[in-house]
């Protein structure tokens, strides 16, 4: 994609994300330009956000009618998938709660509620965390009811429920340094009384306190950037979370969380990208980032990698080593990202590699 077209892409993304602004371009876009925009929107799972920009465009700026119809069909599918996912979330939360478990919904639809049009966020999996020993009890329920599941890398499991992918997580935060575990446990307890709820299909669903939700979501972004990359949707999630919570969060506490978790230098990079590329108002960032901070290189990596690294054209013809990853050139990509991010989150980069390997070969439940 040319730099000029890339600039238009980010203009459209900001307009759709915030519901304001006007598209500025020096010449009309061709059908080929629009097809390229659509391709990258799908690669980054932000096609719903780009679509939401159309109502702010002038008639001559809109994509061709035939492409708009394809986009409408895709939006209908996204909306239906969101509705189906909400039904499953309400059903599972009710089921697990009746079993005496205490599920908390992570990411996903909890973040979608922060968007202008929640049903236009491309949804992924349903992610559950359980208080106390709930993970083991929920896993035992799946076994007893012959629900096929798979224990996965990172101390999690996944399965299909009404054709929706469900994940259960033993760990609340994607912070892998063993030196941070006691601190993270205390955080979870300290913020228990500040949990939020979200009503989905007349069911009150538990969410983390806003500060913990930001730590959890941004830590998840970092985890994927250390491995194979992440797309723009997850950055949009972070931006919308900050936007909806910036007047209520304790900013000093959040700064302390990022600092004690060992990721504050990387958080500064993320914040600069949210402001300069996604248009998050700088006064909605909870604390200032250093002047003259260079984050463009990280945006370049995000741009190329696409959704969880699946669309990185730089490696599409590379070898696949399944023992490491199903993505092309897995070892090379991991090593490159190790070198890129070790300066900004040294403990996380180092221990992510160890814990990732441990959980792949040793740490999975084996019964």
Question: How would you portray this structure in words?
Answer:
By secondary structure, this protein is α+β, with helices and mostly antiparallel strands. It is 51% helix and 10% strand. The protein has 14 helices and seven strands. It has helices at 3-18, 31-43, 47-52, 65-98, 108-112, 134-144, 181-190, 210-226, 232-245, 251-260, 264-276, 296-305, 330-341, 346-361; strands at 103-106, 126-130, 149-152, 156-161, 164-169, 196-200, 203-207. The strands form two sheets. Strands 1-2-5-4-3 form a five-stranded mixed β-sheet, with helices on both faces. A two-stranded antiparallel sheet has the order 6-7. The protein starts with a helix and ends in a 6-residue tail after the last helix. The model has no long low-confidence stretch (mean pLDDT 91).
Short characterization:
The chain has 367 residues and is α+β, with helices and mostly antiparallel strands. Helices cover 51% and strands 10% of the residues.
Give the helix/strand layout.
Blueprint: H1 3-18, H2 31-43, H3 47-52, H4 65-98, E1 103-106, H5 108-112, E2 126-130, H6 134-144, E3 149-152, E4 156-161, E5 164-169, H7 181-190, E6 196-200, E7 203-207, H8 210-226, H9 232-245, H10 251-260, H11 264-276, H12 296-305, H13 330-341, H14 346-361
Parallel strand pairs: 2-5
Antiparallel strand pairs: 1-2, 3-4, 4-5, 6-7
Helix pairs in contact: 8-9, 8-10
